[in-house]
Amino acid sequence: MTLLLTACASAPAKTILLGEHAVVYGRPALAAPVSGRRARAIVSPAEPGHGITIYARDLDRCYPGAGGCVDGDGQFLQAALRIGLCALGCPSEDLDLSIEIRSEIPVARGLGSGAAVSAALMRALACSMKMEIDPALLSSLVYETEKLLHGSPSGIDNTTVAYERPVWFRPGESPEVIEVGAPVTLLIGDTGVPSRTRESVAMVRARRECDPATTDACFDAIGCLVARARAALEQGDLPLLGSLMIENHAILASLGVSSGDLDRLVSEAMAAGALGAKLSGGGMGGCMVALAQPGRTEGIIQALLKGGAVQVIRSHIGGTGQQTSGASQVQGGQHA
Ligand code: PMV
């Protein structure tokens, strides 16, 4: 018998500050949660005998909790549910549950929408059972769902979303939370074009097979930029951080994972006074991220919109305005 309470929880989007693609090959990367966009899950007890239903409100779809779904989104949600319940020691056959998912995170834009949805769902499940789920465990569970979406992800998305702090991430090592030396404002420009992470990762892999020396040299160079960027972030040296982002973008473009839209938004942001800008995530579409200079934020946003961004998301690291995960129980529940 498991005591189930109505509970809601959320998890943030993420942005990669530096290091994507090279991180797949063991180099470090820096990423941060996006303060303004979250995925949310509400878990509530349902009538006895109802079983489990997952309502994906943004997709206007509902799925049964048990497996067997043919639709990719449904399969993903069912897998996240299965993995979460199994980790919490609660077999799904015993449960009557209604699960509602909503997300403010654009899908397929390199913002970790899938990781945030599964993290929110697992947090809400744990909270409804009055159980704790620490960031390391949550990250490893979300990683299992990420494998379904991306094949062999580095683990940076699940880590950033679960720790909900800026992180230094290197595959195979424990992530390190970064304390920033000065508040950072990021402006995330969305090209409106889906980022095809699987394709861009496969393209970089093919390039490395053809020319390992040059490609590995690019990864090494990115790794050095990431190490310098960590120090810049910790010391609050934003001009240095910005110039390292620009260098990182140039290397990513040389690897072939940028696009005309991403390059244009990066140039527009720089012309409007950004301290740095680069594509963020898998690339070939998706989003870019600009490091705003105080006093230039509105101008950069206008420049990005004029340059074709379909939306610009503001995100703050350090200082005020950061949200936290906050899983909470909403009301008394029932025995399932
Ligand atoms: O999932 P995305 O698009 O944010 O990008 C992931 C970053 C990559 O380094 C390209 C892939 C990975 O698994 O780290």
Would you write up a description of this structure?
The chain has two domains: 6-176 and 323-331, Ribosomal Protein S5, domain 2; 180-321, Alpha-Beta Plaits. The longest helix is centred in the middle third of the chain and has 24 residues, at 212-235. Helices cover 40% and strands 26% of the residues. The protein is α+β, with helices and mostly antiparallel strands and 336 residues long. The termini are close together. The protein has helices at residues 72-87, 113-128, 135-150, 156-163, 197-210, 212-235, 238-254, 260-271, 297-306; strands at 3-18, 29-45, 52-56, 61-64, 97-103, 167-169, 176-177, 184-190, 276-280, 287-291, 311-317, 328-335. A hairpin with a 6-residue loop joins β6 (167-169) and β7 (176-177). The strands form two sheets. Strands 1, 2, 3, 4, 5, 6, 7 and 12 form an eight-stranded mixed sheet that branches. It has a four-stranded antiparallel sheet with strand order 9-10-8-11. The protein is built from nine helices and twelve strands. The structure holds (3R)-3-hydroxy-3-methyl-5-(phosphonooxy)pentanoic acid (PMV).
> How many helices does DSSP assign?
9
CATH architecture of the largest domain: 2-Layer Sandwich
- Rg from Cα: 20 Å
Count of DSSP strands: 12
Query: Which CATH class of the largest domain?
Result: Alpha Beta
Distance between the termini: 6 Å
Net shape: globular
Instruction: Determine the strand fraction and express it as a percent band.
Output: 25-35%
Q: Helix-strand pattern, N to C?
A: EEEEHEHHHEEEHHHHEEHEE
Distinct small-molecule ligands in the complex: (3R)-3-hydroxy-3-methyl-5-(phosphonooxy)pentanoic acid
Major beta sheet, specifics?
8 strands, mixed
Detail the poorly predicted runs. 321-326, 331-336
CATH fold call of the largest domain: Ribosomal Protein S5, domain 2
Percent of residues in helices comes to: 25-40%
